[in-house]
């Protein structure tokens, strides 16, 4: 049951109890009216759409963006894994080393480099790509109003484990509820690594180069969520399918 249905059902149940008790037991018309008001509000919540952006629109937007990025990666024959980085404007971008420079420059150099399609970062040529998952995280509102812990991270006051509840909620909401990419997710930590389980993946886009560089669409969206919440660089270092589950290992931090 999603959040809207749970809240709506709760209001209906609460309002029904209050109205019945007030009318038949204590004979209070004002309290009866209050109970009916709660019940009506619950009905309105149930019929109101939870998402202003339909799931089909989200999937279509993702698929179109992936197709365009796939063509660009093919043009440059890119094979190296991307590193996902948060930006000051609230979105996530990915830096991908070009074929001739497979190593990564310093993260701080990437952060302050000009965000052009092709950019030279401390002698390392690479592509700057805005992954489709970046817009999904913003559209979902999953991180809206969350506390920015960037300074605490820099000062060493916050560890990766401190983000576990927030990460689980954000990734689950974006992948399961908002985009319907999967039916369930699991998140575990081990030092600077995140082990992500994604069950029953529901999006299938033929983009081998995109998957090799940025990860599968659900893994890429999860990486965007992690980078957005932790404000740390994120790399997908392993991804494999095991039955109904897709296992993803992500490296977080510099």
TrEMBL record:
Pfam families (UniProt xref): DUF7982
Keyword Transmembrane: yes
DUF7982 domain span: 31-244
Top-rank taxon, per record: Bacteria
Transmembrane segments: 7-27, 33-53
Keywords for the protein's UniProt record, in alphabetical order: Membrane, Transmembrane, Transmembrane helix
Listed InterPro entries: DUF7982
Protein name in UniProt: DUF7982 domain-containing protein
């Amino acid at each position: 049951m999603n959040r809207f249905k749970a809240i709506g059902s709760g209001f209906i149940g609460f309002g029904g109890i209050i109205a019945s008790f007030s009318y038949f037991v204590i004979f209070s018309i004002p309290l009866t009216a209050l109970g009916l008001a709660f019940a009506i509000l619950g009905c309105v919540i149930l019929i109101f759409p939870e998402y202003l952006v339909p799931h089909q629109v989200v999937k279509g937007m993702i698929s179109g963006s992936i197709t365009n990025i796939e063509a660009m990666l093919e043009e440059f024959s890119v094979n190296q894994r991307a590193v996902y980085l948060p930006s000051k404007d609230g979105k996530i971008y990915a830096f991908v080393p070009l074929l001739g420079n497979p190593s990564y420059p310093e993260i701080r150099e990437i952060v302050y480099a000009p965000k052009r399609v092709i950019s030279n970062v401390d002698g390392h040529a690479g592509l700057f790509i805005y992954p489709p998952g970046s817009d999904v995280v913003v559209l979902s509102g999953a991180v809206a109003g969350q506390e920015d812990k960037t300074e605490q991270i820099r000062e060493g006051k916050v560890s990766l484990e401190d983000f576990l509840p927030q990460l689980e909620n954000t990734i689950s909401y974006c992948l399961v509820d908002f985009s319907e990419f999967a039916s369930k997710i699991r998140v575990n930590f081990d030092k600077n690594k995140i082990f992500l389980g994604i069950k029953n993946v529901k999006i299938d886009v033929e983009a081998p180069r995109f998957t090799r560089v940025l990860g599968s669409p659900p893994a890429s969206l999860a990486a965007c969520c992690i980078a957005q919440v932790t404000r740390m660089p994120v790399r997908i270092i392993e991804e494999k399918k095991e039955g109904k589950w897709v296992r993803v290992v992500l490296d977080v931090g510099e």
